[in-house]
Amino acid sequence: xxxxxxxxxxxxxxxxxDGDPDPFQWDTREDCEVRQILDRVADKxxxxxxxxxxxxVMRFTELKREIDGVSQRMLTVTLRQLERDGLVKRTVHPxxxxxxxxxxxxxxxxxxxxxxxxVTWTEQHQNEIAAAREEYDAREATTAV
Length: 145
Prior knowledge:
By secondary structure, the protein is mainly α. The chain contains five helices and three strands; from the N terminus they run ααβααββα. Strands 1-3-2 form a three-stranded antiparallel beta sheet. α2 crosses α5. Residues 1-9 have low confidence and may be disordered.
């Protein structure tokens, strides 16, 4: 049996044939490189790691302690993926026991700016969202009866 690795495809741009923004904004195919990158950077663990590393260089145990609910394995996977994507730099110091530190790369720093905008938007609209949720839940409760 022959095994082949899936190589991400370069997808179409975010604009349709007529120049208007595409309502999907990115290709929905699973092998689309843009979709894969969005899946990675929009993951909750990645967002938290990037936010924490924007403040300072951190060790694995510090990150684990700061991120409530993340398992050791999930944090390891997340850091490796962010490192592979060029967003996080991993430095191993040759001491016993080895000391490993993580920091944002310049590219990761540019992503943090975008994440900060998303957090700001969320903070500004959290009350509206909470009200919409309550309204929705009340409407669903009355139709379920």
